[in-house]
Amino acid sequence: MYMKKILCLLYLLSIFCFSHAQNENIYLEQKIDSTLSGMTIREKAGQLNQLDGRGTIENLKILIQKGEIGSVMNVTEPEIVNELQEIACKQSRTGIPLVFTRDVVHGFKTMLPIPLGQAATFHPELIQKGARIAAIEATEHGVRWSFAPMIDISRDARWGRIAESFGEDTYLTEQMAVAVVNGFQGDNLSNPQSMAACAKHFIGYGAVEGGRDYNSTHIPERQLRDVYLPPFEKAVKANCSSIMTSFNDNDGIPATGNKKLLKGILRKEWKFDGVVVSDWGSVTEMIKHGFAEDRKDAARKAIEAGLDMDMSSKAFIQNIEELIAKGIITEETLDNAVRNVLRLKFRLGLFDNPYTDINKKKETYSDKHLAIAKKIAEESVVLLKNENRTLPLSPKIKSILIVGPLSDAPHDQLGTWTMDGETEKTQTPVKALREMYGDKVEIHFVKGLEYSRDKNKMNFNKVLAKASQVDAIIAFIGEEAILSGEAHCLADIKLQGAQSELIKILSRTNKPLITVIMAGRPLIINEELNLSDAVLYAWHPGTMGGNALADILFGKTTPSGKLPVTFPKATGQIPIYYNHTNTGRPATGKEKSLDEIPLNAKQSVLGHSSYYLDLGAQPLFPFGYGLSYTSFEYSDLKIDHTVLTPNDTLSISVKVKNTGQYKGTEVVQLYVSDLFGSVTRPVKELKGFKRIELSPNEEKMVVFELSSYELSFWNINMKKEVEPGKFKIRIGTDSQSGPETFFEIE
What we know:
Blueprint: H1 2-37, H2 41-47, E1 49-52, H3 58-65, E2 71-73, H4 78-91, E3 99-102, H5 115-119, H6 124-140, E4 145-146, H7 170-185, E5 198-202, H8 221-228, H9 230-237, E6 242-245, E7 249-250, E8 253-254, H10 259-269, E9 275-277, H11 285-289, H12 295-305, E10 310-311, H13 315-325, H14 331-347, H15 367-380, E11 382-386, E12 399-403, H16 410-414, H17 429-437, E13 442-445, H18 460-467, E14 472-478, H19 499-507, E15 513-518, H20 526-531, E16 534-537, H21 545-553, E17 632-639, E18 643-644, E19 649-658, E20 664-674, E21 685-694, E22 699-707, E23 713-714, E24 720-721, E25 725-732, E26 740-745
Helix pairs in contact: 1-14, 2-13, 2-14, 3-4, 6-7, 6-15, 7-9, 12-13, 15-21, 17-21
C-alpha cells in the first residue's frame, strides 16, 4: 500500500511538472508573438544581423539604435557591453536586448587544454566542470553566447581544426558534447552566469578533402547519420541553445543553404527550437561556392533553408526587405527566424536582466578555476613510452636539463583559439619545475631552439655542454599555437624546424631522455619515440600545463590520458582511424615489408590484402592508447546473456587489477563489433568507458549496461534499426587489446 501511494505521488508530480513546463512554453511563445507583432520588417531583419564589435564602436551604436543589430561579437569589456545594451534597451524603438557572443573554445581567461586534449581525459564530468568555469569567467565580461563546442568528427590530423575537436570517435564526442553544453548552460539558462552553447559545425566539416580547411566533403547519407550527426543530436537533446552551420558543401550543397539538413533533420526530425547561426561570412560565401548567384540570392537561399542569424556578411539586413516586397520570400519565413532569436534572448533572461554586473566579485583566475584547469591538464597527458621506468623521475636524479622550444613558451602552450588567454598567467614547464621542485633537484635550462619552426642550431653546443653535467634531460618540443586551428592545415605533420635534430643530439648523450610534446594534433614522431626513453603527449595544455606536467614528471600524479585519435606512422597513412570497415581483403599482419620483398618478385608473391608496402596496416598508436606508471590486468569478462532480443539490455562485467607499484587511474574501454549486417559495419565501435582508480594489488569489477538499441544503425533501407546477428565484445585498455566474448541478437 505504501509503495502504491509513493508511485501515485510520483505520477501526480510528473503530471504537474509536465503541465507546468507546457504552461511556461505557452507563456514564452505568447511573449515572443507579442514582441514580434510590434516590429517592422527592417527591425525583424535586424534581429538576424550579427556583427563584429571589434574596431569602431560608434557605427555600431547607430545601428543598434536603429534596431538593425540583434547580436554583437567580440566585445568583452563589461562597461562597453552595458553601454551598447543600454542603447538597445532604452534608445531603440523595440527595446529588444542584444546578445553578446565570443569563441570561448577551451576557456576564457583560465585556459583549459585544447578540446582534443580534453577528449584525452575520457572524463566528461570533469570537462563539464571546465566548461562551467569558462562560462563563469566569460559572463563576468558580458559574454552570454559561446561558439562552442566544436563536435566535428575529425579523422585527418592534417586539418588544423582537429585541435578544436574531440577526435575521431562518435561516442566519445557525444559524451563530451553533452558535458560542454551542460557546463556552459548550467541548470538555468537565465542565470547571469549561464552561457548559451553553440554546437558546430553542422555538418561534416571534419571530413574536408585533403585536410584542407573550407574544402568540400563527400559524405553519403548513411555515414552522415551513423558517424557525423549523432553528436549533434545528443547536443540538441541536452537542450543546446544554438547550432552553427559549417563552411563546407557536402555532395554539392553548402551547409548554410541546405534545407534538408536545417529544416528536415534539425527542425522536423529532432524538433530543435533554438537558433541556427551561420559561420563567419558563410551566407555570401555560397556565391563563391557557385551555389548562389549574388548576395540577394544567397540571403534567400539561406533563410529559406532555415538559417536564423547571419554572422557578419550583412546579407539578411541588406536584402530581406526587398525579397519580401517582391514576394520572393514570405514574411512568415522571416518571422520564423526572428522567433528563434527572440526565444534565445528570453531564455537567457535578457529581457529581464540585460546588463552585466560589474560590481560583482570576480571569479576569473580563482584558486578553484586554476585547480580545475590543472586537473584537466593532468588527465589529458598521455604517456606513450616509458622504457626502463624512466618516469617518474627517481630520487636518485639530482640534476636535470630542461630544453626545447615549448619549455618556456607561454603563448604557444595555450594553443589555438585563446582570444582572451593571458600569457603572463601561463605556468610554463620551466617556471613550474623551478617553483615546485627546484628545492629537490638542480634545474638547468637551455632552450636550444627559440620556437618550433626554428632551424638555427647555433645553441646546440651549449645544450650538449650543459647535458654533460646533469643526470637527466627533459625536452619540450611540438608545434606553436599558430600551426593548428582554423586555416592552419599542414600537408606534412612532421615536427617543424630543427627539433628532430635536437632530439638526435640529446639521445647521443646517453642520459635519460624524456620528451614532452605539446601540439594541436597528432604529429609524426616515430624517430623521436625511438630515441627517447620516455614520451609524454601533452597537447596544448593551457594555463596550468606547466604545473600539471611537473607533478607528472615527479610522480605526484600518475598519467591516465588516452588517445582520442589514431596516431599515424606517416602522413601518407591519413586518413587512419580505428572504426573503419573491414574490406573484402583486410590485412592479416603477416604481410611482407618493403625490405622483405625478394628481387624480381612475381606480382602475386606479396598476397593481396589492404596495406602499405612501406608502412604496413597498423598505426603508430591506436585509438584509446595510453600507458600508466603502473600496470593493469583484465580478466573474467562475463555477460549475463548470450542471446538477446532487440529490446533487451546486456550486462557486461570485467575484472581489472592494478598489478604495478603505483596507484593509478585506468580508463576501461568497451568495444563492440557487429560481425555482419545488411550493410558493412565498422570493425569495432566504442560503446562505453569508465574511469577507475586502483591502488597496487587492488582489483575491481567494472560493469557496463549495453542496450540493444545502442547497436542500431542506418541499414540498407535507410532506417535506424537493430538487426539480428552476431556480435563481439572486447574490453581493454585501448581499442586493440583486452579479453573478448560473443553474443547474438535474434
